[in-house]
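Posting for a labmate who doesn't have an account.
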Amino acid sequence: MTRVLFVCHGNICRSPMAEFVMKDLVDKAGLRDRFAIASAATSAEELGNPVYPPARRELARHGISCAGHAARQLTAADYGRWDLFVGMDGANLRNMRRLFGGDPEGKVHALLAYAGEDRDISDPWYTGDFEATWRDVYAGCSALLAALTAEKLPKLVVVLGTTACGKSGLGVALAKRFNGEIVSADSRQVYTGLDLGTGKVTAEEMEGIPHHMLDVAAPNQPYSVADFQAGAYAAIDDIIARGKVPFLVGGSGLYVRAVTEGFAFTDAAPDPALRAELEGKTAAELYAILREQTGVTLSNGEENNHQRLVRSVEKALSHGWEAPQAQPRYRCLLLGVNFPRETVCRRIDDRLQARIDAGMIEEVAGLRKAGATDAFLEGLGLEYRYILRYLKGEIPSLEELKDQLGRAIKRFAKRQVQWFSRDKDVLWLDMEGDFLTQAAQAVERFLKEP
């Protein structure tokens, strides 16, 4: 059993928030028998007091009770009783080490360090911002739990990055070398019939490697990131159970993160009347409502997806909004692919022309004829949105279509880079060098790790 003690100055705000958040995460992960979790103070100022009411209310807002807590003071003897001491700020760490006469076994750590951040968790006793403290505490505890259980989590290799940069080909090459199978992480390739416009890998390009999460939904069918996560989890777990290596390959940032970070989604029953009203609004109007209600910022094309915006706004208006929370399910190696901007733009132009020559415009026309609605196609963005406008006469010529669509794809590629660059754990491959050898060596090391 791993014994974790969270520590702050008074033990009525930050450290009890961390204690009860960690207990909640451990319970949800089914790991209660593996951890002992408590909190303490470096001072005696609040000895015996309950959690400060605003902190208690913030925990309750997220469904977490802190009943029965009474502030206690850290002692020198605690060093031999606990495996890990997690402080909220630099002063906590200094005070603990002073009390313990140092830290000979390396037990004292900062909570946000587990989330890759070198800063203190602000003290809401002074700032009054308990929501900001909650976000920091939750991020730190999620990362701490992932670190403490990393050796027990099954492994997942992820190939992510910019459009037109060879993710699919690299995924196939690695899967062939390491006895793997591929799970696609593309928000549009889940739909049947969306082939050329999404760059869906062909049977020939698969080279015999099984691919999952392609063609799992029909056009016009509502399909959410939570739906994708459930399907991806099932596919990955099945691959692992059969003794093979799962490779998650794709460029839809939210879909990738839903799996790698293990978002726990809350769901709400549909509201037909509200949904009918929302269906009549534009994506821009829906996004404005969502931002007003939740403060959430979308990117990577999600801000233009009409269908998903309708569902998100419906949840926000009907049941209140709670951002998805992280419960990592896999230990991930993240491999990133990208070229210099000039090369990416050239590859996009070449690929766009090749897809038009192969019949991409005819594909969109066929989808409309088969019943795909204009709203559905518009919500898909990029190729389907611009070709739809071309077919409706809103874009007057093929050359204008290629110009507008090419520029839109390049903007999308730039947003992808910005999205994935925020993750410090991505190993960006040298795509102008021997990237396959570099990737293979990284995968081999990863799979050999205990």
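Reply:
Got it, the structure tokens are right above this. The chain has 18 helices and twelve strands.
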